[in-house]
């Protein structure tokens, strides 16, 4: 009886093992290769770009300085608003300067009276001198007295004009049309041409925006020496800090006269139209300049490249749909991807693995990416 039970148990165990073995083989047969996207390569001429970080400035950013000292009587604008050229912005207490004008005006009247007297004296003496009724010396003295009176009057008139100009400085107007910033002074503050509060504000004309950016000495020499690049019109696009592309193209307006010996760089300036008023002074932007075309270039998506300790690799799909690794040398980046300088011929299928970390030799199911 025990032998029969033992035999039956062995038969059942063998059957279970046989069934499990068959199920494992069926699962292995049903398992399909993982799908992997790929791109086919081709050689083409691609535009080459260089990128720089620049800072924006207004077409003109003019500081408003006080030329007289005194207390600010009024601030006649709203900070951040647009102002027109000649618009009154600040008034400074004019009392002391008005007094100087009146004093100078009195000096002018005094000098004018002296000139009238000197002229009348000369009119009386000249006929007498012609008749030798007075000496020539008296005539010369009368002529000199009139000339001195004329000079004194001119001096007093000039001083009056100067004082009137200084009085005019008590009314501070906008030097250009544009956007005015935050005021550095308020009503009642004391201001002076000398001191921290000599600059009252800044007005910026932002109808055009200037962008200044540095280039290296080597980049400058490369551009100057490369005749081909100099014959190609320079196109400048701008990317804003939020990643959006500015809708208007720019152009180079000037380059500095020299290379900064401390940094080894040269400052260039480009200008962009600003009809929507989107740009304001002080922004940091990224400029991209087209410097020519690279013929017969191989470009692949940047996401197809993997970097391992400074070595760049891509996975290609061979004729058996197996993954093979290829070491490459990448070049500059373009709109469509990464230019590959070495490692690819241009007829390969390059896999885009994404987050799939597959081994070399893995059989996959290639799917052409759109």
* CATH class assignment of the largest domain: Mainly Beta
Percentage of residues assigned to helices: 25-40%
Q: Find the CATH superfamily of the largest domain.
A: Efflux pump adaptor protein, beta barrel domain
Terminal CA distance reads 72 Å
Structural class: alpha+beta
List low-confidence stretches: none
CATH architecture of the largest domain: Beta Barrel
* Average of the residue pLDDT scores: 86
Q: Can you count the beta strands?
A: 19
Q: What is the CATH T-level topology of the largest domain?
A: Elongation Factor Tu (Ef-tu), domain 3
- Strand residue content: 35-45%
Number of helices: 5
Largest β sheet strand count, sense and barrel closure:
15 strands, mixed
Detailed description of the structure:
The structure is a single chain. The chain has a 15-stranded mixed beta sheet that branches. Strands 6-5-3-8 form a four-stranded antiparallel beta sheet, with no helix packed on it. With 370 residues, the protein is of the alpha+beta class. A hairpin with a 5-residue loop joins β15 (311-317) and β16. It has helices spanning 2-30, 95-130, 136-168, 217-225, 227-231; strands at 35-40, 43-65, 70-75, 82-83, 88-92, 171-173, 178-180, 190-191, 199-216, 235-239, 251-255, 265-273, 284-300, 306-308, 311-317, 323-333, 338-342, 349-352, 365-368. It has four domains: 35-46 and 296-368, Beta Barrel (conserved putative lor/sdh protein from methanococcus maripaludis s2 fold), CATH 2.40.420.20; 50-58 and 204-293, Beta Barrel (Elongation Factor Tu (Ef-tu), domain 3); 64-93 and 170-203, RNA polymerase II/Efflux pump adaptor protein, barrel-sandwich hybrid domain (OB fold (Dihydrolipoamide Acetyltransferase, E2P)), CATH 2.40.50.100; 95-168, Helix Hairpins (Orthogonal Bundle). The chain is built from five helices and 19 strands.
